[in-house]
């Protein structure tokens, strides 16, 4: 069964594999949606347990933590009105050790952090990405290392298509 710890361990194993083969090339963690929590977990673990900073972290369609994200995803709209939503859904995530606390992770990171969010994201609202950015920015000593880029609705990038934006390589660089 997938676990938060397992995802993080897998990313760190992939990091070790890539680092051993990349020479002096930069390696960054790029997470999309649920993967943003995994990316911040792995970056934090690498920093705290090994004293290594990943070269950068890019978060696309991010959220603060899984509990808050679960209350905003469209499918939960139907269930939020019923008694027991918190117990059955939100508490179940906690009981399964699924927290994905990007809000806590970004407070201790020191590597460059780029948060990308589309204004028309119907799965994870842009205000979650903005909140995460504000948390990171207030915690980072070097504020220039934290950036937040939003993509206007007119581009139609939604939750899944930021990577299709032709300007993305230049923005990330």
Automatic annotation (TrEMBL):
<dbReference type="GO" id="GO:0047372">
    <property type="term" value="F:monoacylglycerol lipase activity"/>
</dbReference>
<dbReference type="InterPro" id="IPR029058">
    <property type="entry name" value="AB_hydrolase_fold"/>
</dbReference>
<dbReference type="Pfam" id="PF00561">
    <property type="entry name" value="Abhydrolase_1"/>
</dbReference>
<dbReference type="GO" id="GO:0005789">
    <property type="term" value="C:endoplasmic reticulum membrane"/>
</dbReference>
<dbReference type="GO" id="GO:0004622">
    <property type="term" value="F:phosphatidylcholine lysophospholipase activity"/>
</dbReference>
<dbReference type="InterPro" id="IPR000073">
    <property type="entry name" value="AB_hydrolase_1"/>
</dbReference>
<dbReference type="GO" id="GO:0052651">
    <property type="term" value="P:monoacylglycerol catabolic process"/>
</dbReference>
<dbReference type="GO" id="GO:0006660">
    <property type="term" value="P:phosphatidylserine catabolic process"/>
</dbReference>
<feature type="domain" description="AB hydrolase-1">
    <location>
        <begin position="5"/>
        <end position="68"/>
    </location>
</feature>
<protein>
    <submittedName>
        <fullName>ABD12 lipase</fullName>
    </submittedName>
</protein>
């Amino acid at each position: 069964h997938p676990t938060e710890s397992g995802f993080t361990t897998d990313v760190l194993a992939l990091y070790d594999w890539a680092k051993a083969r990349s020479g002096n090339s930069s390696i960054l963690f790029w997470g999309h949606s649920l993967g943003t929590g995994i990316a911040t977990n792995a970056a934090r673990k690498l920093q705290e347990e090994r004293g290594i900073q990943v070269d950068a972290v890019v978060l696309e369609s991010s959220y603060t933590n899984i509990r808050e994200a679960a209350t905003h995803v469209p499918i939960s709209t139907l269930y939020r009105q019923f008694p027991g939503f918190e117990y059955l859904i939100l508490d179940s995530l906690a009981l399964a050790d699924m927290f994905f606390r990007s809000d806590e992770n970004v407070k201790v990171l020191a590597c460059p952090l780029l948060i990308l969010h589309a204004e028309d994201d119907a799965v994870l609202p842009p205000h979650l990405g903005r909140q995460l950015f504000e948390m990171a920015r207030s915690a980072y000593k070097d504020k220039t290392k934290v950036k937040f880029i939003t993509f206007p609705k007119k581009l139609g990038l939604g939750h899944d298509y930021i990577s299709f934006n032709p300007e993305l390589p230049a923005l990330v660089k």
